[in-house]
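[Q] Does anyone have a clean structure-token version of this?
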Amino acid sequence: MKINSRTFTRHQQADLLILLALSSLVAWYLHDAYSASSHFANLILILPVSVLVLVLCALDFITQLRGLHKAPLKLEPIASMLPAITLFVLFVLSLEWLGFDVGTFTFISAFLWLHGERRIKWILAYSMSFALLISLFFSAMLPYPLPMLILPSTY
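[A] Here you go.
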């Protein structure tokens, strides 16, 4: 039986370490949440998301160990990511006075425009739908009121 002995590049080693760290943190968080309260209401979101993340980490770990990631990833230069990072920082900083609903709408619209989408009706419809759904979801799920400009902030 021939054993495939190959060495990992620094990039692959870093990927494997990040996967290991992520899965360890998720497992620790799941254990901590279960230790605090094993009631259904406490684990209704934590358990499925944690299991999903752990399964995805395991699949990616196995895939990398088997060498199925043969082609090196083409990394974008940092300068090309700075506009998106800046846009996200502005989004976070504007939430207090712009509100989560309008801030999310503005962020999604600007992000789509930044990435080349030029159909105004599509940008507006997609941004409005996403902002409405995510604002209503977080408003209902979070135990504290979100700052909103248009939608009612309920608790």
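[Q] Thanks! Anything notable?
[A] The mean pLDDT is 84.
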